[in-house]
Design brief:
Helix 1 crosses helix 3. The protein has a single domain, classed as Gcn5-related N-acetyltransferase (GNAT) (Aminopeptidase, 3-Layer(aba) Sandwich). The protein has a 5-stranded antiparallel β-sheet with strand order 1-2-3-4-5. By secondary structure, it is of the alpha+beta class. The structure holds coenzyme A.
């Protein structure tokens, strides 16, 4: 990975203060708290039942049973353009994506991308936390189905995820990463209080991306 240019160093031009790089690993306490605590004898692990609620949305951990929804979402043209082609062509591919992505992240970090649905159960997108080896901080990620965009739902979900990162995951700082031309994502991150933090590549041969940061 190529490190972000200027990370941790003062930048010229009176820009935002240099970010503090968190060097300690995030605590794995997603299952802590009354919402995540299970009743004695409950067969469903407490952390797996984590649920964040907002006025219009419910966020929960993804399951293999979400494969059909994931198959549709990750093949949406905007997802492919701005996030990438995940190679998910079949439901089996979608289950593989879930296992190696979000489910592996829950096991490794205690957090990950979450399923976002309206209160009536209609799935509308993904929003959550992604810890990449290439970045010191976890970043907030979001992708919504076309019919759910432009209604402020992504902002509502992301605000809940940011509070979850601080309160449940013990994170002190979050990053955001977007394609250089992803205006909706940039606007959203800025509305959520993220400040530009230079450019970054997540892989040596990967595209240059815009990096954002925010203290919690
Ligand atoms: C990025 C994404 C989640 C934003 O969802 P959304 O539903 O538009 O988000 P919101 O409704 O909360 O709006 C966020 C802001 O972006 C603005 N916005 C949306 N589309 C925009 C566009 N094409 N150009 C400029 N601003 C845009 C909205 O107007 C809003 O700002 P405002 O409240 O000042 O009007 C959605 O477009 C998406 O899923 N895109 C495909 C996947 C993706 O790119 N994910 C991000 C990867 S970093």
């Amino acid at each position: 990975m190529r490190p972000a240019r200027g990370r941790g160093k003062p930048r010229g031009g009176g820009g935002p203060p240099a970010p503090r790089i968190r060097r300690t690993p995030p605590r794995r306490i997603i299952g802590r708290g009354p919402r995540a605590r299970g009743a004695p004898g409950d067969a469903v692990p407490a952390a797996a039942r984590l649920c964040l609620e907002t006025p219009r949305l419910r966020l929960r951990r993804l399951r293999l049973a979400d494969a059909r929804f994931i198959h549709g979402l990750v093949n949406d043209p905007a997802f492919v353009r701005f996030i990438g082609d995940r190679g998910v062509r079949t439901l089996a591919d979608a289950r593989r994506y879930l296992r190696s992505g979000p489910l592996a992240s829950y096991a490794r970090h205690g957090f990950g991308l979450y399923h976002v649905a309206l209160h009536d159960g209609t799935p509308v997108g993904l929003c959550g936390l992604v810890k990449r080896d290439a970045l010191p901080d976890a970043d907030v990620g979001f992708a919504f189905v076309p019919a759910a965009r432009g209604r402020g739902l992504a902002g509502e979900a992301a605000a809940a995820v940011i509070e979850h990162a601080r309160r449940d995951c013990g994170l002190a700082r979050l990053a955001g990463v977007t394609a250089l031309d992803n205006l909706a994502s940039m606007r959203l991150l800025e509305k959520l209080g993220f400040a530009p933090d230079g450019l970054v590549r997540l892989a040596p041969d990967g595209p240059e991306l815009r990096l954002y940061g925010r203290a919690l």
